[in-house]
Amino acid sequence: MGQWCQTPVSQMLGHRGLTPLSQQKKLVYLTALCYHITMLMKKHKRVYIHFERRGEVMKNFISKYKHALLTLYTPVYLLCFQYLEQTITTEFTALNSPIDNLIPFIPIFIIPYLLWFVYVAGSAVYFIFNSQRDFIKLMSFLIIGMTAYIIICYIFPNGLYNFRPAELRDDNMINRLVAWLYKTDTSTNVFPSIHVYNSIGVHVAINKSDKIKSRFIKNASFVLCVLICLSTIFLKQHSVYDVIGGIVLMAFMYFMLYILPERNAEAKCEAESQQSITD
After folding, report:
1. Dihedral angle at the C-alpha atoms of 147, 150, 152, 155, nearest 10 degrees?
2. Which of 26, 42, 197, 246 is the least crowded, having the fewest Cβ atoms under 10 Å away?
3. Are 227 and 234 a contacting pair, CB within 8 Å?
4. Distances (CA, A) of 10 to 3, 25, 49
5. CA-CA distance, 201 to 119, in Å (whole number)?
6. Residue 26 in 3-state DSSP?
7. Residue 94 phi/psi, 5° resolution?
């Protein structure tokens, strides 16, 4: 065993038919190997630290903006809405009103009608990154209202008969957009109007937010909100009853989420003031 350990490596390799290596070359190769191993370890350490830092950043980001998870309600709502659109097609209560016959069809209102999507989504994204309190209140407002809408339409199937224009000329972009809207959104499940409800809810959130100081933004929000509400009847998407239903639902939720908490806060503050005076 001792003789074996004392046998030079070069001779051992030579016995196997390999070219003997000098001690100097072996030292060079060994040094190079150690160097590459060291560099590889450093590289892996840097990669590990990099991913560790990225993981920490991501963890902090998720912790800071975890309230954004409320937006996961959107696909749930869309699935429920799609179910209603596919199941409620002919058997429903017509909500046409005599007043609707006096309201003209104005295709240009397709612009504010479609801006509704940007208005609602853009406001939600702004509040996600700028005001957790306002975002949670806005999403609570939207989620409760849209859930109530789904329940109402399921229990009380509703729609509009022969409400839209019989013919729509395909000679300009505005009319083509209206035609696309009619194709993708039927005249069923219209009460209450979610366009009206959500628009007013977003405007209330913008107007109540301490983060938004600009009067121009608040006034612009009001104008857009009004135009969106008008677009629902000028495009013959909703009847007057649908608009009124959206406003009534909005008023109830506004009282529950804004007026009532403010009154409770004022009452609590007043009670604490009286208690401090008594003490």
Report:
1. -130
2. 42
3. no
4. 15, 11, 42
5. 11
6. helix
7. -75, 135
Question: Is the distance from CB of 195 to CB of 113 less than 8 angstroms?
Answer: yes
Q: How far, CA to CA in Å, does 45 sit from each of 38, 40, 130, 178?
A: 10, 8, 36, 59
pLDDT digits (tens, 9 = 90+) for 105-147: 999 999 999 999 999 999 999 999 999 999 999 999 999 999 9
Beta bridge mates, 94: 159
Cα 274 to Cα 254: distance, rounded to the nearest angstrom: 29
Distance from the first to the final alpha carbon of the chain:
95
176: left (phi over 0), alpha (psi -120 to 50) or beta: alpha
Single pTM value for the model: 0.78
Distances (CA, A) of 171 to 1, 28, 176, 193, 209: 99, 82, 8, 29, 43
CB-CB neighbours of 92 under 10 Å: 19
Q: Residue 228: which pLDDT band, with cuts at 50, 70 and 90?
A: very high
> Are 225 and 200 in contact, with CB atoms under 8 Å apart?
yes
Which single residue is written with the structure tokens 């295709």? 107
φ and ψ of 205, to 5 deg: -60, -40
CA distance 261 to 270: 14
